Amino acid sequence: LWEAGKYNEWRFRNNNSFKSKMKSEGYELGERLMAREGGHQKYLENCLRAHKEGKYVNPYEYAGVVMHAVEAGKCAMHEKLYYLIEGVAAENQHGRTILPPDFMGIANAGMTNQFPLLDFLTAKTKRRYWDQAEGRYRESEEGYQLGLVDFRNWIKWFDEGNPQNPDRCKPTDFVKDFLYETILPHEETRRRTAKGIRRAENMDHEDIPAYLPHVAVDNIESVCTRRAGGDVLTSKAYANAFPGFNQAIKSLAKKGNNEVLKDVIKSYVRYEGIIKNRYKKHKDDLARLGETEELSKPTVINDKPANESIAEINTVIEGIISVYEGSYPDLRRLYELTKEETPRFRTDRNQRERQKEIDEAFEMFNSVFEEAINSDEGERMGNAIDWENLSGF
Q1: Closest Cα to residue 250, out of 108, 389, 65, 63?
Q2: Contacts 24+ apart (CB under 8 A), 107-112
Q3: What's the distance, CA 334 to chain centroid?
Q4: How far apart are CA 255 and CA 252, in angstroms?
Q5: CA 95 to the chain's CA centroid
């Protein structure tokens, strides 16, 4: 039997050796793949297919390309999730996997702020898990850490019941649904997102639309505040966040997760007010797009203008207000104030005074909206949203 200290030392050396080879072999390959359209995804798909056909796949190259995709932003978020889980859990006919079972811990080290969902995959926390002995899902009463049993159950869903099938090597819609309905809204992912978003410039900007809707309303302003070197995000990334909010609201309404849905809507109202230059107009260090071309041209997320996503969400919020305003009349008054424009704010004293009222309305809307939704645990809100009419992405 290993003594605890010697085992930990051996494991540390092994993990460091794997990381070193992953960097030297996989990252170099990842750099070369950047020159090809969809190079990372196609490479990983081909590797997974070869593995499921019983062929050898270099684990250092596979792992390196996955992690390089995280750092370089060369795969969609659900693709990175899929190939990470498949690499650890998908066994071929020889009973082998591409990656070692503890690779999640290796990936997690130093990467959680850049790819916050890794915290969901590795943290010991309360969660829904598969009880193999009872053959059913249970809610953990204490901290539970995901393991191979869980990941192998996931890939059965991911690969439509047959994870050894070489024709099942690309993420299905189930992967996206699982990501947006379960992983991103989980408190562990949201907690890590709150830390990672402080340095949003280090994140894959194509992941921002998925993470930003789960940033608490009190932190939204920080994400939109310019620093010495310029905006935290590009104008394109700020615009892409709107289909992200659209998708988050759609997924949470579909899942019936009213608690998180309430928070996402509060964050959206604040974010839209900042980006469209209606909130705190006196602050020149906030990112603004106003009615610029960036909001009118198709985003890379869903090929639709951000303004279309905004219009759909605003319709949803109007519907929610309509079912609560009888009991909470201030809700509509405050919301309509947040939509008011003060185009002569800089030169007209009356508009400057009106802008103060608008800024106060943004603050007060949060508390009134919170109280209204909590009054029935979001039941009327959930019933008011026709999530199938939201475009998402």
Answers
A1: 389
A2: 107/63, 107/66, 107/67, 109/15, 109/19, 111/67, 111/70, 112/192, 112/195, 112/196
A3: 29
A4: 5
A5: 33
Angle, CA 132 vertex, CA 131 and CA 135 arms, to 5°: 80
3-state secondary structure of 291: coil
Alpha helices (runs of H) in 224-275, residue ranges in sequence order: 235-255, 258-275
Question: With left for phi above 0 and alpha for psi between -120 and 50, is residue 54 left, alpha or beta?
Answer: left
What tokens were used for 128? 């829904």
Which of 29-33, 228-232, 291-295 is the least confident region? 228-232
Identify how many contiguous H helices and E strands the chain contains and give both numbers. 19, 2
Q: Are 309 and 247 in contact (CB under 8 A)?
A: no
DSSP letter (8 states) at residue 299 = P
207: CB partners within 8 A, 6+ apart: 73, 77, 115
pTM of the model: 0.88
Other Cβ atoms closer than 10 A to 367: 12
How does pLDDT run across 366-389, given as a tens digit for each residue? 999 999 999 999 999 999 999 999
Residue 343: count of CB within 10 angstroms of its CB: 10
In the predicted structure, residue 275 carries a pLDDT above the cut 80:
yes
**Which pLDDT tens digit goes with each residue over 298-335?**
887 788 899 999 999 999 999 999 999 999 999 999 99
Q: Which two tokens stand for residue 157?
A: 């869903």
**To 10 degrees, what angle do helices 148-158 and 77-89 make?**
120
Structure tokens at 350: 């009356």
Is the pLDDT at 129 greater than 70? The verdict is no
* Cβ contact 78:176 at 8 Å: yes
Q: Which residues pair with 131 in a beta bridge?
A: 136
Contact of 382 with 233, CB cutoff 8 Å: no
Higher pLDDT, 384 or 118: 384
Tell me whether strands 128-131 and 136-139 are parallel, antiparallel or unpaired: antiparallel
pLDDT at position 224 is 92
Residue 51's alpha-carbon distances to 65, 115, 147, 165, 168, in angstroms, are 16, 26, 21, 10, 12
